[in-house]
Amino acid sequence: MREKPIITYSKEPVLEPKEGCAWADTMVLNPALVLDEDGKTIHMLFRATGPWPEANLKGKSDPYPIFLGYAKSTDMGESFTADFERPALAPKLAYDEQDMYVINDKGEKVINYANGCIEDPRLFYIGAQLYLTVACRLFPPGPYWEGDKRKDNLPDWVMDPDSPVGVLARRNDTVTVLYKVNLNKLKEGKYEEAFSYVGPLTDGNLSDNRDVFFFPKRMNVGGAQRLVMLHRPERSYEFPTGEGVMTPAIFLSAADEFEDFATKSATHRLLAKSEFDWEQERVGASFPPIDIGDGEWLVSYHGKELPNYGYTQSFMILKERDGDFPEIKHRMSERLIYARQKWELPDKFPCPCIFTTGAVTIGDELIMGYGAADQKIGIAKVNLKDLVDYVRGFDEDGNRTD
Predict the structure, then answer these.
(1) Rounded CA gap, 390 and 274, in Å?
(2) Residue 368: beta bridge partners?
(3) Tell me: the pLDDT tens digits for 290-314?
(4) Residues whose CB is less than 8 angstroms from the CB of residue 147 and which lie 6 or more positions away in sequence, other chains included
(5) Which residues, including other chains, have CB under 8 Å from residue 154's CB and lie 6 or more apart?
(6) Is the pLDDT of residue 258 over 80?
(7) Residues 380/384/390/396 CA torsion (nearest 10 deg)
(8) Segments in 107-160 forming alpha helices (H)
(9) 300 pairs with which residues across the strands?
(10) I need a labelling partner for 53 at 20 to 30 A (CA). Which of 163, 325, 397, 401 fits?
């Protein structure tokens, strides 16, 4: 039997909430990572929040808009220096319908789905262009660790059935939004020039949908070279091949262009649903796929189950197929990364949680960023070859083969 790879974890957080920082004094978590062209500097976008009483619309609870902050590491992820002076990317926080628009990368005025909060960033390249995906809400939620506070700050006009944001506004579910990123501008602190709004990748009127990102190249799906996306809809049963699946699951989706993914022209395929006890409530992809050669991709993913496990992380290997979506060749039936250290264990949330949203490879080492207890950020490291070899010890159904 193959030995488990040795994974090392931060002994203490590499980033945590900053006292006195209005937009980051309550939670700092779920980092996206990208490696600089120098091959050693790691750039991070992290999710952060704090109370925003000036935007309390109806007096129910102070909203907690969610921002993205910027940090970098020059020591292989052992430590990060964060810019807490201002967020790198902030929601607009407009409540008047006529103000909830943004100019996209084509110069068009479109609905700003990132108006209320910008959650769980993922950074990845397609060709030479760096992209960012984020789960967004139209309006900021209240203190969400106290329960479902998505609707505490909804303006009255969202109840209008003719509203262009319709059902989505009334539920205040997440829509995943795509941005282009200029890494040089980000590094220089020119945040206003670093991000270009592209548009929504998911249909919020169909389902809350997050954990969305792409393979870094087009693939032959259905006889054409198409963009291929992973996503995790809350209502799996609303999607073709997800009929009867009553828990969130991982789907693949293919389309010719980014703007097609939120439309009926996209093709969807169920990739993985809950199978094991630690996945009973939820399965979703975690950070963008890593090319391991010969048409194979290492995909990190998470499962959720309460009260025994919380959020934990594992891996699968996908194999490309000519003319069709990639398929699972190896899937671990055991959780590999989970909360163990005291600082990683529950605080505001009762749910144990380690959640990886970014990784870079430097030499032989895979360096993963993770949110712990939904409040702090840590780094985990593992030899990439050892990890891949271990995942190969499982078949597509999670059975041990060695």
Answers:
(1) 21
(2) 359, 380
(3) 999 999 999 999 999 998 899 999 9
(4) none
(5) 57, 139, 169, 170, 172
(6) yes
(7) 100
(8) none
(9) 315
(10) 163
